[in-house]
Amino acid sequence: MGFAGLADEGLTRRLKALACTAPLHDLDARKAKLDWADATIYQMAEIALHTIDQVTIAMDFDTGAGHARVIDRLLPFIAQQAPSRMPEEHVRVAKWVLDNLINVGTTDRGFRRVYGSIGPGGYQRRQFDFKLLVELAAPDGEVYLRATDEAINVLVGALDTDVESAQIAAEVKLENLINRGRLADAKLAAEQARYRTVQYGETLRAKLDATRRDVRAVDWELEVPDLIDSALGHIESRFRAENAILKNITTARDESEELDHKRRAAELVDIVADCIRRHTRLQSRLAAAGAVFRAEQDRQQFSGPPQRATIDLFGQLLVPTLGLPLADAVAPAEHFFHAVAGITPPVVPALSSLVSLLLRPAPERDQLVGEIPEPELMPAEDTDRFGDDVWRLADDLLDLPDVPRRLSGLLDDARRTKQPGLATLVALRALHAYSPEVGAARRQGERHVLLAVDDGTLLNDPEFGGADLLLSTAEVERAEENTENAEDSEEVA
Questions:
Q1: What are phi and psi of 111, to 5 degrees?
Q2: For residues 39 and 31, is the Cβ–Cβ distance under 8 A?
Q3: Which of 23-32, 168-177, 224-233, 318-327 has the lowest mean pLDDT?
Q4: Where are the alpha helices (DSSP H) in 303-419?
Q5: Whole-number average pLDDT of the chain
Q6: Backbone angles phi, psi at 430, to 5 degrees
Q7: Closest alpha carbon to 451 in 437, 439, 461
Q8: Cβ-based neighbour number of residue 168 at 10 Å
Q9: Residues 130, 111: contact at Cβ < 8 Å?
């Protein structure tokens, strides 16, 4: 089982390494489809590797390579592949390769590849997300390029390799190659050692950037101190090795009689000197890492939550606005409501969303709504407070065609009948008669309507209060009778 696990881990590393090279192969696969040039003459994967190489060499601890600088360094290499083409086409090819390595046009500008791994649950497909070149903003606002760990691993032909062990192996290999006089191979080993130095600095930079965002996101108790100690020890040993190597190369360059040998030795001198400069800058960053942690710890601990002044809507907006003339109050009111109304949704959605919405298949709708449940009907509650007998007695008491009567006398008559609720119904109907709906009674064909008049007399009753109304029954004149009377009047006229 242990051997199977090691074999699977090695297979995963190789699959990830192949995945990192896939975007480079895609460039050669898609170059024939370019409509602005016959790009089949260009080796796009080689141009992409050269692009990553130039970005990596130009990277510093805090900055990277500018777009224009990278394109200028690519043009001689591209011109060597197609010397008969125009310089404008060379520039366009360089920009196309650079944009594809950044993966311009995608949401997160990253690449995604699927690979398989064998685990306890059998064969499983996994997704590997990575980037090759990323764009970052400098403090002065300029945008620069940096190569990711995956891009550097593409250059050195490995993936997820321990930085320190790879650096030591590269230095030993470089020293052996120099001692054996194989300067061509020594140049390649020196370039790989420089890439690993850049990667080591990138690891520390990522830790410090995470600390500046949130000091709790980085383990400064164990992980980072161990990283700093091992990095300082690594730099100390590298300084001795690189200075010795630089001395040997310089001697080989000065004593060599062959021009090619002298040129290669001179290139090695420049590369190793650049490695020493990078180690010097990395050492200064390592020495200042502790101070960065302490400063960020104090800043984030004592800064507190962000304070924002709140607005008193009543005292600072509503009251002053109400005191303004209407013409002057319109402007502040409109500004306020436009601000609190939120973001206005666009009238037309984005093109990608619109196309996706139009291409989406229509949902399947059932012609029938399904079985309709039969409701359980409950018997209606009896909401009539007064029975028919009570209503009949009230009609008799309130039938007053000749002489009006006061409400107090009608209430006494109602109580003498000993009918429960009769006095209450008489009082309610008398109150309703104070403003009778004569028009509704006329439309419904009723012959009489009850009228109530308040003459200022107070009601003296143990149960009800208010005015002692005068009640009388009035006759309602029908609409047909009005029409006949009008016709008779016209005939008489």
A1: -105, 155
A2: yes
A3: 168-177
A4: 319-322, 326-340, 351-359, 388-397, 407-416
A5: 76
A6: -65, -40
A7: 437
A8: 17
A9: yes
Measured CA to CA, the distance from residue 416 to residue 426 in angstroms comes to: 13
CA–CA gap between residue 436 and residue 471 (Å, rounded): 12
Query: Which residue in this structure is represented by tokens 């949704």?
Result: 345
Q: Of all helices (H) and strands (E), which one includes residue 475?
A: strand 470-475
Instruction: Please state, in angstroms and rounded to a whole number, the distance separating the CA atoms of residues 180 and 157.
Output: 24
What are phi and psi for residue 193, nearest 5 degrees?
-65, -40
Residue 196, CB half-sphere, CA atoms under 13 Å: how many? Answer: 27
For residues 467 and 448, the answer to whether their CB atoms sit within 8 Å is no
- How many CA atoms are closer than 13 Å to the CA of 318, on its beta-carbon side? 5
β-bridge partners, 146: 134
Residue-wise pLDDT tens digits, 370-419: 666 777 777 766 666 778 888 888 888 888 877 888 888 888 888 888 88
Rounded distance between C-alpha atoms, residue 75 and residue 69, angstroms: 10
**Residue that is written with structure tokens 């311009």 in the block:** 104
More confident residue, 349 or 76: 76
Asked if 168 and 192 touch (Cβ cutoff 8 Å), the reply is: no
Q: Helix axis angle, 2-30 relative to 149-156, nearest 10°?
A: 90
Q: According to DSSP H, which parts of 82-158 are helical?
A: 87-102, 149-156
Closest by CA to 429, choosing from 400, 462, 451, is 451
| CA separation for the pair 96, 104 (Å, rounded) | 10
Sign of the dihedral through C-alpha 27, 28, 30, 36: positive
pLDDT given at position 6: 43
Residues in the chain, how many? 493
Degrees to nearest 5, angle at CA 175 with 173 and 181: 100
Phi-psi region of 85 (alpha: psi -120 to 50; beta: other; left: phi over 0): beta
Q: Which DSSP category does 40 fall into?
A: G
- DSSP letter at 433 equals T
Q: What whole-number distance in Å separates Cα of residue 313 and Cα of residue 308? A: 15
3-state secondary structure of 387: coil
Judging by beta carbons within 10 Å of its beta carbon (0-12, 13-18, 19+), is residue 297 exposed, middle or buried?
A: middle
The answer to whether residues 471 and 404 touch, using CB atoms and an 8 Å cutoff, is yes
